[in-house]
Specification:
mainly alpha, 59% helix, globular
């Protein structure tokens, strides 16, 4: 497995790392085991967007920063997938067990934190709701999700 990881990493390092010919003017921070993977990826995406890096280059910047479970997820991807940021991100989130069900559970069990304002708590809840219902754009689709949850919760164990 380690040789597979080393092989993939050498392929990424062999690729030219540039945003249309220029170096990135900010130093990316490597992922650590105790980092919140969602926050890390959002920050990475915002840095790439702020520096106008084409999405086709994102894997070249992200791959060398990965560690732990994220690196294992990356190593399990095919050669084609390692060049696609969304495929890398999806694999990492799956490895961390971050999916619609996890967002639903967090949405339903979330509590207001000490010192958190009502507005901050509301924003956190709405963020979890949006992630839970990702891809659902109509009221009908969202009603289906909530209705199915209620149905499943009503079934005897």
């Amino acid at each position: 497995m380690q040789s597979h990881i080393d092989n993939l990493m050498s392929m990424i390092k062999a690729q030219p790392v540039a945003k249309s010919g220029a170096e990135l003017s900010v130093k990316l921070v490597a992922l650590k085991d105790d980092d919140d993977i969602e926050s890390y990826l959002i920050t990475f995406e915002r840095i790439m967007a702020a520096h106008k890096v084409g999405k086709e280059w994102w894997p070249h910047y992200l791959a060398p920063q990965l560690a732990g479970k994220a690196l294992l997820a990356f190593a399990a991807l095919s050669i084609t997938e390692v060049g696609e940021y969304e495929a890398i991100k999806d694999a990492i989130l799956i490895r961390y067990n971050i999916n619609e069900e996890a967002y639903r559970n967090r949405f339903r069990t979330e509590k207001r934190k000490d010192g958190e304002t009502n507005r901050e708590f509301s924003v956190r809840l709405m963020d979890l709701l949006q992630k839970w219902t990702k891809g659902k754009t109509s009221v009908d689709e969202i009603q289906q999700v909530i209705g199915m949850e209620q149905f499943l919760n009503s079934l005897p164990l």
